[in-house]
Amino acid sequence: MLKVDVCIVGAGPAGSTLSHFLHKLNIDHLLIDKSDFPRDKICGDGITVDVLNVLKRIDPELLEKFCAESEMLPSWGFCFNGPKGQEIRYDFRDAQIPVAPFYTARRLDLDDFLIRELPENGSGQFWPQTELVGLSRSEGGFIAELKKEGGKESIHCKTIIGAEGEKPVVTRYLGLEHFREKEHLLAAIRIYYKNVQGFNDGDHLEFFFDKDLLPGYFWAFPLTNNEANVGLGMLSTAISAKKINLKKMFDQVIEKNPYIQPMFEGAEALEKTKGWGLPIMTPKRRIAGDAYALIGDAGGMIEAFTGKGIGPGMMSARILSEHLERAFQSNNFDLSPYHDHMYRYYRSEISNTYRLQKSLKHTWILNPVMSLASWSAVTKYAEDKMIRNFLKWV
Ligand SMILES: Cc1cc2nc3c(=O)[nH]c(=O)nc-3n(C[C@H](O)[C@H](O)[C@H](O)COP(=O)(O)OP(=O)(O)OC[C@H]3O[C@@H](n4cnc5c(N)ncnc54)[C@H](O)[C@@H]3O)c2cc1C
Fold it and tell me: How remote is the CA of residue 65 from the centroid of ligand 1, in Å?
């Protein structure tokens, strides 16, 4: 039976990032994914500064390679479009930062890039088309049952890391409570389009808050090849309470919203609507314990306001790698300190984004939030936090 120190279940951005860091730390590991790569993942494809930050932490050359990939589109700003057509737009082109603060990349390309760039002869292996189908505690760790192309195989691992995304697997097999309250879950749909008009020439990420859509929001993000990632997201409690059909609402917004409708004249949908869940951050969710930890969506690492989860997922992997290093040095596999570290790291982001999300409940709250005062708050945030932090690490 194969014996490994760490088994990572799921090779999305969270799992593959952890593999990159374990390679750097020379920690023996196995990364598995039930899919073959490249594979799609329903997402908005918006890449935020924390992704760039983690890529650089893995290796500055990796960040350079990412920026040079032809499928990664630099995006120089963002815009929150209010119900009355008000805009909070920020453009970073004059901020003298060396690379764009945002990118867009189809997940087919981003996730494949992260896998392709894993070292070939390092301390880990990647097994695609390998699904975790059973997990039990055994002496000194776990026995993981894997389903692969030619049959089943069991391996022994000292620690198990759940990076399997939104559908819980590791916690389920371990019989642990899997915290999945509707108030901490968003649902969203995505459709790829061609020929969407009217994007800013800096390829900004556009968010729209339509009065009939609240507390949800609509997004349109430009991609390479004149394509766009378009979607709609909403808190699951609101969907249940108001019995909302997201697809119907999406069609309605495209037909009726006076700011969105012109963008879609002549646009062509490239696929049918696809939906997925987004577990949002809450310290109520336990993400680590005796020889196990959860990263990315498996640990509910999505930011409540914008639905950003790629960056926090990759950041959770970076933070966990420090705790795994310590665990293997000390031979103490209680990974609970990772739980505390993550929620300390994201404490202010969690409270700010939940507060912002509450402002989406009614137009009478949202309209003042979209006022001049907010514009100055956004400007201050962009200049103080983003630009200064950006210059510190790039
Ligand atoms: C509609 C939508 C829009 C979004 N937009 C954005 C956005 O614009 N920007 C952003 O930052 N975030 C966005 N998010 C969130 C983002 O998609 C997730 O946070 C991100 O994918 C999390 O990455 P992950 O590695 O944790 O999980 P995933 O990317 O889901 O990867 C999990 C992997 O685990 C594998 N797996 C599952 N079960 C098993 C098993 N039993 N055995 C082996 N492998 C298994 C899967 O095949 C998969 O490859 C969006 C989400 C949705 C739904």
Answer: 22
